[in-house]
Specification:
The chain is α/β, with parallel strands linked by helices. The protein has one domain: Alpha-Beta Barrel (TIM Barrel). It is built from nine helices and eight strands. Strands 1-2-3-4-5-6-7-8 form an eight-stranded parallel beta barrel, surrounded by seven helices. Helix 4 links the parallel strand 4 (about 95-100) and strand 5. Helix 2 packs across helix 3, helix 4 crosses helix 5 and helix 7 packs parallel to helix 8. The longest helix has 21 residues, at about 70-90. The N and C termini lie close together (about 5 Å).
């Protein structure tokens, strides 16, 4: 697979970013998706750290805020956070910003129709803020156990059409697609040129080859739609809680094993 490869930094758990970055570089990756903890990171320092290890910041994944809540105060705070995240991305240069609803909220607090409207309005606001800074936004499609809003590639295309922003694309994730898409490769083809970023983990959220996902079909579909962006590995060690990378035992050693084998597969595909 002739594409840049990255790793989500959050999957390493609570360790210093410098240590995580050093491990990712040693594993032969090209860059990272950085968790958007704006209290912990400063753009210039992060940029220097990554450059010192020969890595790029491909994308920023957001903190767990709720841009589609009917609570006006919480929604305003979420939008303020996204504006800061976009400014961070602009200062680093070249990083995509991922956008999604509150992870773990799987039912509307108001009506679905109202929250869909709030989501559209929030995305318009975020895309408008990102446009002068030349920052692209990608809407991440999550599975039904993490979000109730948009769970398939086709639903994401419908959302993009309603938002009407030319700097908005789709982030598909093989792990989420395993749950929601009847045919993941077909879903990639349907999204086509709107695909802005791609995440991989096997069907059990472990490394490639540990589950039943047909990655060969996925790789062919990515080639067919002409996707040339990075592929970001977002796997974790086995364990019951899907919302934390911290698992029983030496989960970091397990993770690094998964990252090594996943990189080998992706390079050979």
């Amino acid at each position: 697979m002739d594409r840049k490869l990255g790793v989500c930094t959050w999957t390493f758990g609570p360790r210093p970013l410098a240590e995580t970055v050093a491990r990712i570089a040693a594993l032969g990756y090209d860059g990272v998706e950085l968790h958007g903890d704006l209290r912990a990171f400063r753009p210039k320092a992060v940029g220097t750290l990554l450059r010192d290890h020969g890595l790029a910041v491909f994308s920023l994944t957001p903190d767990n805020v709720d841009p589609a809540t009917p609570d006006a105060g919480a929604r305003a705070a979420a939008l303020d956070y996204y504006r800061e995240l976009i400014d961070f991305a602009a200062e680093i240069g070249g990083a995509l910003v991922s956008f999604h609803g509150l992870v773990g909220r799987i039912a509307p607090l108001a009506s679905m129709a109202e929250e869909e409207e709030l989501l559209v309005a929030a995305l318009r606001t975020v895309c408008e803020h990102a446009r002068p800074a030349d920052v692209r936004i990608v809407f991440e499609v999550l599975n039904r156990y993490e979000s109730h809003l948009v769970n398939t590639g086709r639903a994401a295309l419908g959302l993009i059409e309603r938002v009407g922003a030319d700097n908005l694309g789709v982030l598909l994730d093989a792990y989420h697609m395993n749950i929601e898409e009847a045919a993941p490769a077909k879903a990639i083809r349907a999204v086509g040129g709107r695909l802005g970023l791609f995440h991989v983990a096997d069907s059990n959220r472990e490394g490639i080859g540990r589950g039943h996902t047909d990655f060969a079909a996925i790789a062919r579909a990515l080639d067919e739609v002409g996707y040339r962006g990075p592929v970001i590995v977002e796997c974790t060690a086995a364990g019951a809680n899907p919302f934390t990378p911290v698992k029983p035992g030496d989960y970091r050693a397990v993770l690094e094993g998964y990252l090594a084998t996943s990189r080998e597969w992706l390079r050979a595909a």
